[in-house]
Write a structure and sequence with these properties.
heterodimer, A: about 270 residues, mainly alpha, Fusion Protein Consisting Of Minor Coat Protein, Glycine Rich Linker, Tola, And A His Tag, Chain: A, Domain 2, three-stranded antiparallel sheet, 11 helices, 4 strands, about 10% strand, B: about 450 residues, alpha+beta, Rossmann fold, Neuraminidase, 2 domains, four-stranded antiparallel sheet, 6 helices, about 45% strand
Chain lengths: ~270, ~450
């Protein structure tokens, strides 16, 4: 009986010894991994814009000169007078008579019902085809969604195809500084509203604007958003006043389509 | 083999794609917009007729000067000097040569023509976006020739609205107290003029002291304070007919009157036994209603544009401060908590701000705060100034300022001044005499 007890306790001791020696990891705390910090690798050449070799520089300058000469001749279009004439004021006499009748009652000058047509380019778009505008907006939304998708999830193949789809800091700063000087912000805007105007531009290699398009066009017709038209017009004026825009000398394919997001809120809230 | 071809073609036509580059523009300049106001073209026949009728050599040029002056005083536009214009007014009105206007840095251009038709003045004007090379507005007005200044104001209102996105304030009038004579024997008359200081007319003779005139919403009636048998009383005056009447038969003094936004009531202070409270009077049935009931001095009431609230000043906290309450007198809340004394609160026509006079450390300030009392901004500071009144678009304030006329601090002059909400565009409003207590009308052409 005692023998059995001794054997049993001995075996138990052996098991305990094995357990304490072979399972030490159970007592240890799990390894804490340092948090992952993503690092964006940028080629220094993109940032510093190192001047290219003197030979190449000369060639590029020659090409630029040629382009400029060509563009100057393109920029002098014949006056497009005749088309706008029908919009002009000469008012039907009948309407003037109507106005005069009212005047007899009041001594105040009365505004005539002129047949004045709105001529700003986005208004024209609106008048002609509203569906088209809606399509444009949808398209812009699609584009936006696409761009965000692309930037968020870049697949390996995308990575190969998309080469440097942003402006460098110095390029962006130069463009911003130029437009800051040209944009006269209308001071009558309500500063508690959304004051963002997005304009999509199509540019020539020398920075002149081929086409400008307001992306949130439908907002102009919404009630209480009259100020938006004024803001959008001021942004368009800024682009026209500034052109040719200070775009990078290389990589035309990269920036030939450009979106400018004009936001007056920061300035007006001061 | 076919698969291999497809793969080769795929690699050959694989083009690099670019996502759209976005650049955020969050800054601009607040410089006034350069604008060219071309003289309005007038034909020879019309010129002669206008010369006979209104004794003005070139009416078109005069109207353009009115527009130009209005735009300049707004502080938002920079009218370019006329001697830099390269195109003749009549041709510019027909079709501007935009290159010429771009050369002088104009971003907008106003052209027009003036005609004499059937004994009437007909003014046609157009506005052009110079950079876009397009017409953006064209209107015509017909009126009696003597009304030519108003046409200039209406054109400015249209231009202002088109380029800033908010209503203008140029076709308006200001009523004020015209003052003459030494300080001890001051003669005070009610006077009315265009907002640019022209066409001044006197509404009272100056026999009695008059104070705090205020327009009703239709600009036809004025309520003001006048002394009758040495007792201040609130009066009503019809501008067209000149008929005036006392508002109510109160045993004590009534003062600080102002119309309700619908013009049906007058709100004012009534003082008796050393206590002053706010009352309203219905102008149709003459029923008087007590709004505040507090043993302090409650005065200077002003309605919110929707008529639901009233702001006023009271010394119920020990110091004069601004309070708001519901239009029936309930739910009184103090909104000013800054150092100093606050008075003459006026609710903006936009409804978002309250203008006030503040006295702190011996200086007077004109300022604005939000209706909850937050966001206080002091726009201008001086030795003595008070009584702000809003332009109808809620962008500019007119007030009066007293100044010492010599170094010894003797002599004294009171003038009207205006300041916009930016606090930068401060200007003296021209008046024929000294002036105080201004009140801005609503737009005349609505």
């Amino acid at each position: 009986m005692t023998k059995n007890i001794i054997i049993s306790s001995g075996l138990h001791l052996i098991i305990l010894l094995i357990a304490t020696l072979s399972l030490p990891f159970l007592g240890k705390k799990p390894i804490s991994l340092p948090p992952i910090v993503s690092v964006e690798l940028i080629q220094i050449t993109d940032k510093t814009n190192i001047p290219f070799a003197p030979k190449a520089k000369k060639i590029i300058e020659k090409v630029k000169k040629k382009e400029k000469e060509r563009l100057v001749s393109e920029q002098a279009p014949p006056k497009k007078v005749k088309k706008e004439k029908p919009d002009a004021v000469p008012l039907p006499d009948k309407k003037i008579e109507k106005v005069k009748k009212i005047e007899k009652k009041k001594q105040n000058p009365v505004k005539e019902d002129t047949e004045v047509k709105q001529v700003s380019e986005f208004e024209k778009d609106e008048i002609f085809d509203t569906n088209k505008i809606a399509a444009l907006i949808d398209k812009s939304k699609q584009e936006l969604a696409e761009t965000t998708k692309k930037t968020n999830k870049i697949t390996q193949s995308d990575d190969i195809n998309m080469t440097n789809n942003t402006l460098t800091l110095s390029e962006e700063d130069a463009l911003k500084a130029q437009i800051f000087g040209c944009w006269s912000i209308p001071l009558g805007l309500p500063y508690n509203e959304n004051l963002l105007v997005r304009i999509k531009l199509q540019l020539k290699p020398d920075g002149t604007v081929v086409k400008s398009e307001i992306l949130d066009h439908a907002r102009m017709n919404k009630p209480g958003q009259g100020f938006y038209k004024v803001l959008a017009e001021s942004a368009l004026r800024a682009v026209r006043l500034c052109q040719p825009l200070r775009v990078p000398s290389t990589g035309y394919e990269r920036w030939k389509d450009l979106q400018l997001n004009f936001d007056a809120k920061e300035m007006l809230q001061g | 083999m076919a698969i291999l071809r497809i793969i080769i073609i795929f690699f050959l036509f694989q083009v690099k794609s670019y996502s759209l580059i976005e650049v955020d523009i969050t800054r601009g300049n607040l410089n006034p917009l350069p604008i060219a106001v071309s003289p309005l073209a007038t034909d020879k026949d019309s010129k002669k007729k206008f010369e006979n009728e209104v004794k003005i050599d070139d009416l078109g040029a005069e109207i353009s000067k009115v527009v130009e002056n209005n735009l300049m005083t707004s502080g938002l536009f920079n009218p370019l000097p006329k001697d830099s214009f390269l195109q003749e007014p009549d041709i510019a009105h027909f079709k501007p040569r935009f290159e010429d206007w771009k050369l002088i840095k104009a971003q907008a251009l106003i052209t027009g023509k003036v005609e004499y038709i059937n004994e009437k003045l007909r003014v046609e004007f157009r506005m052009w976006d110079v950079l876009a090379a397009k017409e953006i507005m064209a209107l015509a007005f017909t009126t009696v020739p003597s009304n030519w200044r108003r046409v200039g104001h209406i054109i400015t209102d249209k231009v202002y609205e088109r380029l800033t996105g908010e209503k203008g304030y140029f076709d308006t009038r200001i009523i004020y107290v015209a003052e003459e004579g030494p300080k001890t024997q001051r003669i005070k008359k009610l006077a009315i003029m265009d907002q640019d200081g022209f066409n001044t007319k006197y509404l009272t003779l100056g026999n009695e002291l008059v104070l705090t005139p205020r327009f009703n919403p239709t600009n036809q009636m004025v309520t003001y304070l006048s002394y009758f048998r040495n007792l201040p009383r609130v009066y009503l005056l019809d501008i067209e007919t000149g008929i005036q009447e006392v508002v109510g038969d109160f045993p004590g003094m009534t003062f600080a009157p102002r119309f309700s936004p619908d013009g049906k009531k007058i709100i004012m202070s009534f003082a008796t036994g050393g206590n002053s409270d706010i009352y309203t009077m219905d102008l149709e049935n003459r029923v008087v209603e007590r709004i505040t009931n507090h043993p302090s001095i409650d005065t200077s009431p002003s309605y919110s544009p929707d008529g639901k609230y009233i702001c006023f000043n009271s010394d119920r906290s020990g110091y004069q401060q601004i309070y708001i309450m519901n239009s029936d007198g309930s739910n009184v809340k103090r909104i000013s908590f800054g150092r100093g004394l606050y008075g003459t609160p006026v609710w903006s026509p936009r409804g978002d701000l309250i203008a006030f006079t503040k006295l702190h450390s011996g200086k007077f300030y004109i300022g604005v705060m939000r209706t909850d009392g937050k966001g206080e901004r002091l726009l201008t500071e001086n030795f003595y100034q008070e009584a702000p009144s809003w332009s109808p678009n809620g962008r500019v304030l007119v007030f009066y300022r007293e100044t010492k006329t010599d170094e010894k601090g003797e002599g004294f002059s009171a003038k009207l001044w205006s300041i916009d909400l930016t606090g930068y565009n401060e200007r003296q409003v021209p008046t024929k005499t000294d002036a105080s207590d201004p009140s801005w009308s609503s737009l005349l052409s609505n």
